Amino acid sequence: MYDPDTMDRNLAIGDAGEALFRYWFETNCSGLDDLVLEQFGYNPEGIIADEEKKEMLKEHEDAPDFALFDRNEYEQQGVEADPLVGISINTQKSWYDMDNGPGAKLSYDSEVLDHTDWGCYTCPRGESCYEGEHQNLWYNEYNISNDYRLFVEEYGVDVIMVSIISTTPYNVRRKFKSDEEMFDACYRYLNRGTEALSKQSVVDFLDYLAFDQRYSSRSQPREEEVVFVRRSDILDRLEDEVFHVTQSSVGGFRAVACVDSDMVTGEDGLIETLAAFSDYSPDQLPPDWYANQAPDDLGSEDES
Predict the structure, then answer these.
(1) Is residue 200 within 8 Å of 293, Cβ to Cβ?
(2) What's the Cα-to-Cα distance from 144 to each of 60, 88, 96, 163, 212, rounded to whole Å?
């Protein structure tokens, strides 16, 4: 089963990270009224059996987490509309280095570490990273080489790979893993955005997502670092020292694309990149904008 022993279900780190990105988008890219941000990838509701999960992953194998659409086309064609760009969301508690790789920090020159033709110890930046001179983003290599490749081939548009450097998604999962109402609130907001604010639980969820809970007056917003790199830029620089395929011990052993921080662009660049698809200029809303967005009948109907 999918998260069988807890009420985690989809209130896992990934879903919390995607909800955080939607909140970031609606806070920093307000006013781009000719655009629609829609959840696009594998995101089932509830507990999913293994076989069903496998089939759903196959069905959505070419899907990043979100896609940006032209509003007119999306309203006319719905899911049949062609996306303007794909957006994948990656969450990290912090920037990674060799400490996050299996076996790293034992001894850089150790003969005991029998590495093959890939891994941190074959990276051109390996020794300097070992000394703590680099900080990196890690992306699932299979997503880049397969899933996003299929998306690009299908739609002819790039994938923006967003990373959120924050402990918030991990805190959300830990706090609400046995809270069915907050799981539901996360799922509603992730999929429906501001339309989900008709339920008080969604507003409460955003309070936790957006604000440091040591301050009940919404005086201290949480701080996240939001950065991105285009998939096409990674492919253009496969031979550069800023990129390397290694092995992750975070979340299970898997091949990851390790991208040096020198290659990524920050939050302002992401706003500018997304706004380039619009005829309007973006506005930035106050962090608690959602508090006054809900209708007067807050929490009444809306069970869909």
Answers:
(1) no
(2) 14, 10, 19, 14, 34
pLDDT bracket for residue 112 (50, 70, 90): very low
Which residues, at least 6 apart from 15, have a Cβ–Cβ distance to it below 8 Å?
43, 186, 187, 190
CA dist 207 → 143, 213, 296 (Å):
32, 8, 18
Q: Give Cβ neighbours of residue 192 (< 8 Å, ≥ 6 apart).
A: none
Task: Give the count of beta carbons closer than 10 Å to the beta carbon of residue 87.
Answer: 26
In the block, tokens 């299970």 appear at 252
pLDDT tens sequence across 279-304:
999 999 999 999 877 554 443 444 44
Query: What Å distances lie between residue 47 and 5, 37, 304, CA to CA?
Result: 10, 26, 18
Structure tokens at 225: 């670092």
* pLDDT tens digits, 25-49: 999 999 999 999 998 865 444 433 4
Could you tell me which residues come within 8 angstroms of residue 55 by beta carbon, excluding any fewer than 6 positions away? none
How much is the pLDDT for 263? 92
Cα–Cα distance, 158 to 151 (Å, whole number): 8
Q: What percent of the chain has pLDDT over 90?
A: 48
Q: Are 231 and 159 in contact (CB under 8 A)?
A: yes
In tens, the pLDDT along 259-278 reads 999 999 999 999 999 999 99
**If we measure between CA atoms, which residue out of 87, 71, 70 comes closest to residue 24?**
87
- In contact, 65 and 39? CB cutoff 8 Å: yes
Question: At residue 257, does pLDDT exceed 90?
Answer: no
Token pair 């492919």 is found at 235
The DSSP code sequence of 211-223 is B-TT-TTS-SB--
Paired with 165 in beta bridges are 92, 225
